[in-house]
């Protein structure tokens, strides 16, 4: 197919070979946008036939939009995929069947994302099927500029569906996972603080074609979740995932996943939000932004406008 796959990486030597090899039957071109990895990520990616460029990392949304704007993409289609993801055989088959025959009215394709946690597919708790836009015609895709949980949209046309799973299976241990999500909690705190104080740090309304689930999820995050009582909203979300959406059916892995992803992480977000308010009240917003940059490496600055000129893709 005439398809370019774009992968963002930083120290992904454990996953990058698996990811690239799963793409070889569907992608005619593979780009790795690396954030100056310190391990063998770049060497493995080049060995597997990927084209590698390097750029300083700010956040996922900024990095991927830069890739869309600047990589010399000469294929008809673009696919977004993370380094710890890979496509199933069923998804590869449906992609090679459906995408080349897509009518001109179709501008993109949803796929089902399946999380594998501690060796077990998470199929309950409302986490599956998690239908996401991952494939679109070159030039039509944009990325919502948020600090976390950003989504992609196509600016026009219809979005179809490719059956099969995009499998998200990180092979690192729980210590790494909790450290990663501790950092994610700081990014979620920034988004909530932005909603509360209207700082203009995130682009919360990107026009385009998105799934109904994304629209509902976005409205809940933007209008309902911030209005709920801190800390209690984390507990409510956990109960929703684990009890009402049957997360307990995924066994011990489901318990750990729901507890860490829904309760622990969001409780930590609220604690960091409280800390942020205290710092801003005592020292001012500029001092707090400097603290995020110096202590956590988070360069909190307004995103580029959607109307900025683009060089390609």
How would you describe the overall organization of this protein?
This protein is of the alpha/beta class and 313 residues long. It has a domain at 174-296. It is 42% helix and 20% strand. The chain is built from nine helices and eleven strands. The chain has helices at residues 16-23, 41-47, 60-70, 89-98, 174-197, 212-224, 232-244, 251-283, 285-296; strands spanning 3-9, 29-34, 51-54, 77-80, 85-87, 106-117, 120-121, 130-137, 141-143, 152-154, 158-169. The strands form two sheets. Strands 1, 2, 3, 4, 5, 6, 7, 8 and 11 form a nine-stranded mixed β-sheet that branches. A two-stranded antiparallel ribbon has the order 9-10. The longest helix has 33 residues, at 251-283. The two termini are 17 Å apart. Residues 303-313 have low confidence and may be disordered. This is Glycosyltransferase 2-like domain-containing protein. Residues 5-111 form the Glycosyltransferase 2-like domain. Pfam families: Glycos_transf_2. Belongs to the glycosyltransferase 2 family. WaaE/KdtX subfamily.
How would you characterize the largest beta sheet? 9 strands, mixed
Share of β-strand residues:
15-25%
Structural class: alpha/beta
Count of beta strands: 11
Question: Cα-atom Rg, whole angstroms?
Answer: 19 Å
Question: First CA to last CA: what distance?
Answer: 17 Å
Query: What is the ordering of alpha helices and beta strands?
Result: EHEHEHEEHEEEEEEHHHHH
Q: Can you give the mean pLDDT?
A: 89
Shape: globular
Poorly predicted residue ranges: 303-313
Total helices: the number is 9
| Helix coverage percent | 40-55%
